[in-house]
Amino acid sequence: MANQISRKFQNVTWKNIETKDAVNCHILLNFDDGTTQILKAVVSNPSEGSPNPDWTQIMEEIGADLIDSNTTEAIQARDSQRESDRLTQEDQAAKNLEFQKQEALFSMKLESFEIEAIKNSTDRASKALIRKSKSVLEVQAYTTILLMKELENANKQESTTEEPK
Amino acid sequence: MPTSKNRQPKNQNNGFLIVASVSTAYYKSAIQLAGSILDFYPEAKITLFTQPELFDERHRNMFDVVDLSAPDHIRAKLFALPKTSYDITAYIDADCEVRSEEISTIFDQLIDNDIVLTKIRHYSGADLVISDTETLYWHCGVFLYNNKKKTLQMMQDWWKEYDLQISSPEWLWPQHRKEMRGWDQYTFYRLYTSKKYSTVKLDVFPGEDARWNYVFNYKPEEITKDPIIFHYSLSSQSVYAGRINKKSNVN
């Protein structure tokens, strides 16, 4: 069984920066077989009369000033990570929204060109307007316009081929 | 056997290649794409590679060639590329749409190169990191290629090498990340960086390359004029729902 040869406190920050009555830290334990163990711990000093030796060691080796600055840095890093996570989430949400929007636009164009009158129309200029549409509303509007044109053309053709009475 | 439709004679035998396999979602998109090419470029010659289960005879008149030998494979495009009958081929992914008359100038963009492509935008979403020092560079959704022996050989190898890449039990390229296994763009990367194809001349579309393959989530500042080809990307749900073979892998 390996014997512990040293212990060291690392990443020491106040558990509560207001009360400063406990610290979060990592305890690095080195053993005589060359292995190392890292423990996550909370160290406090419950009584002035019988001080916690870990607490005493931390205060002597690291000191309150360094723990203050460690804590400030840790808070800043945490806030920055939260902000970064928030931005990533927002970015992902925006991407998903854009994908859904484009998917809806594409489906709408497919549906438009599945309408026989649109599919068979020789009015390339109007069809191009549908192709170039960047929103669902545009697709609907140009589809309606082209349908009306096709209906008008059909009516005209009908009236010119009608027998005179 | 491919069947041909006679169109007006052309000075050059250049044309578009569209591939639709695996799902009705890709087939419908391919028809939409072909329609959009013809709306803006009525003289265009288009070859469609698809599967008999997907093909609808009513669409035959849109195409110069219809080839029904495409495999039931999500990367059937790689199978089709070397089989082109054109001098210069413009390959376009089926989930794209042409939005400009400038499409008629696409074959001029090859200039003196063998292959012309667009660049990948790193923010656009794909996994691009090949290794600590290498990333994918070329987007293979829209590109031009000529019919020189070497170019067509490269296209042939693209299919063979991709098959090896996805089917070999061991990962054969330890210098690169295993996550690249499913990427045909990674296969393309291996080929164009290989000694065998070092003489194949590749370049980016001249000018604003993003106009030739404007993926739906590209930043608007990539271009100062409207896209010529807009790339939608179909959702995996719609591709999955339209599978003709319910065992097909759609990823």
Give the full name of the CATH homologous superfamily of chain B.
Answer: Spore Coat Polysaccharide Biosynthesis Protein SpsA, Chain A
Oligomer: heterodimer
Greatest chain-chain interface?
Answer: A-B, 16 and 23 residues
Major β-sheet annotation of chain A: 3 strands, antiparallel
Task: Describe the protein in words.
The complex is a heterodimer of chains A (165) and B (251). With 165 residues, chain A is an alpha+beta fold. Chain A folds into two domains: 83 residues, no CATH class; 58 residues, no CATH class. Helix content of chain A is 61%, strand content 18%. In chain A, helix 2 runs parallel beside helix 5 and helix 4 packs antiparallel against helix 5. The longest helix of chain A is centred in the middle third of the chain and has 52 residues. In chain A, 13% of the residues are buried. Chain B has 251 residues and is of the alpha/beta class. Chain B has a single domain, classed as Spore Coat Polysaccharide Biosynthesis Protein SpsA, Chain A (Alpha-Beta Complex). In chain B, the strands form two sheets. Chain B has an eight-stranded mixed sheet, with helices on both faces. In chain B, strand 2, helix 1 and strand 3 form a beta-alpha-beta unit. The longest helix of chain B has 19 residues. Classes of the chains: A alpha+beta (165), B alpha/beta (251). At the A-B interface, helix 2 and helix 4 of A face helix 1 of B.
Pick out its properties.
heterodimer; A: 165 residues; alpha+beta; three-stranded antiparallel beta sheet; 61% helix; B: 251 residues; alpha/beta; Spore Coat Polysaccharide Biosynthesis Protein SpsA, Chain A; eight-stranded mixed beta sheet; three-stranded mixed beta sheet; 18% strand; disordered N terminus
